[in-house]
């Protein structure tokens, strides 16, 4: 496969020349010629089976990666046995000493040998280095960066490179004892044993164990050698090189098993992590803990605002009862631009029985780099949480940029989405009032016909159900999704013939441009309808909750016709914005919307003002709506909006007409009411039809706020409210 590589990863085999028992069977009696298996024979069978499989159908190996502990407790012979085993079985599959990468583990260094000494690495070097394998730079053995043979394995085209790191230089080393303890240390066992030689020997071994530490560490000198080595490594002709680090010790515990011991972790771990981050290491392979895992490590810079993601693969070994991950085939595909890794555990087989290997693990290596101006994605399943996050994003990271929001609520949660808890309503409202306010607003936006089209020619429902005056796009979507999961189940709200001008001047059309509905199988006989809506610009503090409530409204309309459930909602805003969360209106004011939705409320309001009293129920609701209309208008006149929010006109005119008709006795308060309403409607109409510049806004706002104040006072005089 082009742009791919396959490696065999082995670790912690724990071999010895004399053999290491592998007692996975229960031998209660000894029978002649029936012996327990050894670790060596078990792994040899596994290698034989794996080589047979790879010869038959699998790829050739690009290398073998051995992450230490060939020996068992320092007993000799493990290195040679493993090396010969690899060449015997995998030599025909492309494995040579030149593409074997080997590092020493803590069991591979003699106890009490000084750190950075040749004696420490004599057995390791005699096999791996002498054969020409790739090994790490060794403290005290190597001086210059190129001493000791090759310290990296690079793919022929430079797409990948592997760098071994030695973490065992300070493993099993006797600590420096302080005086006067150091001077008497050797004599302590004999003194304590009182002439008992056997007891003295045991005491000496126990005291030596107390003075010995098993420390994992990477020297600063080795890290600097590695830095220079990586910087000079041949690179691919295009794309980014995939870099792999091979070490024995873990970066963090790969399982929930607890280990209590001094120096359980790499002593300069944060320095090693920073090295991996700065050198762009994409994968780390290690052993030591005898546990398998594949976890991403996120390593942040010193400021904590950028992270590098490294996949850490912990390799297990095999023990009685734990035989499913003796080795791993690691295949990397998609290099250089979209690398992914597949980790296939290889189990220890039984003679004559087919192996049952665990399922492979797949991980995507590449992650999205932070590109200035890239779309920001917010996703979640809690409306309040998502709302607060999108408001924050629209005000900061995604301001005037692309913001994608994915709301994944349980399918068919309810027929209406509630308002987020922090939504800035014009005035405090309780649950039922909040829901009714939102429902009425959404219903108006989804009207098939509106008496206010001369002012708002892009009401969403009109565009969806009477596009071009004749096409019902919602019915079309229903017919398409009833038949199959069509990608053509979309509706447009922009009409170039109607909305565009030749020079792009004085164009007014909805921010809501396009919506697509997707049929999704839920399993069994259930299906969901997901919706993806595109907005050329979107305000998030006030508008986004209204928009997704509209999407839910449309989902339910379609689902009711099909017997499906409403599913996910995704909004894509090309220009994300948010204003302050001060209460303000959302599109057409309440009193104007009443002309379409509830004209009787204007009658009830006028009746209350004429008679100077308010009945509970519908009339009380109408008066509250009037109070909210004044609050909306006041907020609109307080903060300049360059987009130009619609302001009350028709509703004010009609209310003035109702009051004028019923005022047969020339009531002064009602006459003043009519005068202020007509003046406000006239000023509002003049401002809305004008250029809506900041200077014009300032002039209009002063008179509008004065009119609102007068209307509040007149309403209070008449009704004792506000």
> How many β-strand stretches?
22
Strand order of the largest sheet: 3-2-1-12-13-14
Query: Level of helix content?
Result: 25-40%
CATH level-4 homologous superfamily of the largest domain: Metallo-dependent phosphatases
CATH fold-level topology of the largest domain? Purple Acid Phosphatase, chain A, domain 2
What topology emerges from the helices and strands here?
Layout: E1 5-10, H1 39-56, E2 63-66, H2 78-90, E3 100-102, H3 122-131, E4 153-154, E5 160-164, E6 173-174, H4 181-184, H5 188-193, H6 197-211, E7 212-213, H7 220-231, E8 242-246, H8 269-278, E9 281-286, E10 293-300, E11 307-314, E12 327-333, E13 340-346, E14 361-364, E15 376-380, H9 383-395, E16 403-407, H10 431-445, H11 460-465, H12 473-483, E17 490-492, H13 496-499, E18 512-523, E19 526-535, E20 538-539, H14 543-562, E21 565-573, E22 576-577, H15 590-597, H16 599-611, H17 618-638, H18 650-662, H19 668-689, H20 694-719
Parallel strand pairs: 1-2, 2-3, 5-8, 8-9, 9-11, 15-16, 19-21, 20-22
Antiparallel strand pairs: 1-12, 4-5, 6-7, 10-11, 12-13, 13-14, 16-21, 17-18, 18-19
Helix pairs in contact: 1-2, 10-14, 12-14, 15-16, 16-17, 16-18, 17-20, 18-19, 19-20
